[in-house]
Amino acid sequence: NTLVALLRQNVIPIINENDTVATEEIRVGDNDNLSALAANLIDADVLILLTDQDGLFTADPRSNPNAELVQTISGDSIPEAVWQAAGGAKSGLGTGGMLTKIQAADLARRSGTACIIANGKTPDVLLRLVVGEQIGTRFEPVVSAVEARKRYILSARRAPGLLSVDSGAAQALRRGSSLLAVGVSAVSGTFKRSDVIRVADAEGHELARGISNYDSRDLARILRKRSDEIEAVLGYHYGDEVIHRNDLVLL
């Protein structure tokens, strides 16, 4: 939510893992994979990884004059030959080299985000990529962003919370609407914001799963409240919807 709010204000967020305070248990380890996680978080259309090479080659171009630029990679999986070619290339940027850029590209494409690896020294590289010029190596997404998000929601191992909704809210959800607090009749379980939770109708039948904009304590306070009453009750406001329709999957 913070990143999206900043982007709406035309502010460009800068994200970097702090190596001096990041613990081994939670650190990502390199900014390439961190960028892929951030792209997934905001449902980015394209992830651009800039390096000191013109893209991914069939071999390390600095040691093999016959190395050729790979312009596009598509399909369900990245060919083993690509991984092998990346393993020998050493980038002067960051700590991960070309291999971690391939890993990041694979993570992004499986989340519905296209990824481009290009040379950061190419003049106007970002502007030229934005207008669609073929530069570097492009990794096509395996699934759409919407499909990837649905897979994430359905694959959540734990759905610690349960919201019971009235018949009107259940009908609205089946028509593709978001879930509003006014339609929630009960909250069960303990969960945090952004947790995947279950949604059941008045008869107790699970009809959907989704990502909650509010934690269980907040939801208990705004049951049956209109969206324009939420801030007055809580003192803050995370959105009009308890679960936005883009973050909800019908079962």
Instruction: Provide the gyration radius in Å.
Output: 22 Å
Calculate the terminal CA-CA distance, rounded to whole Å. Answer: 26 Å
> How does the overall form come out from the CA principal axes?
elongated
Summed up, the domain count is 2
Shape-level CATH architecture of the largest domain: 3-Layer(aba) Sandwich
Beta-sheet strand percentage?
15-25%
SS-based class:
alpha/beta
Helical fraction: 25-40%
Write out the strand line-up for the largest beta sheet, numbering strands in chain order. Answer: 9-7-10-11-13
Low-confidence stretches: 88-95
CATH superfamily of the largest domain: Acetylglutamate kinase-like
CATH hierarchy class name of the largest domain = Alpha Beta
- By DSSP, the count of extended strands is 13
The sequence of SSEs as H and E is HHEEEEHHEHEHEHEEEEHHEE
Describe this protein's structure.
- The protein has 251 residues and is α/β, with parallel strands linked by helices.
- It has two domains: 2-142, Carbamate kinase (3-Layer(aba) Sandwich), CATH 3.40.1160.10; 156-250, PUA domain (Archaeosine Trna-guanine Transglycosylase, Chain: A, domain 4).
- 31% of the residues lie in helices and 20% in strands.
- It has helices spanning 2-8, 31-41, 80-87, 97-110, 125-130, 145-155, 167-174, 216-222, 230-234, and strands spanning 46-51, 56-57, 69-70, 72-73, 114-119, 137-139, 162-165, 179-180, 184-188, 196-200, 206-211, 241-243, 248-250.
- A hairpin with a 5-residue loop joins strand 10 and strand 11.
- The longest helix has 14 residues, at 97-110.
- The two termini are 26 Å apart.
- Residues 88-95 have low confidence and may be disordered.
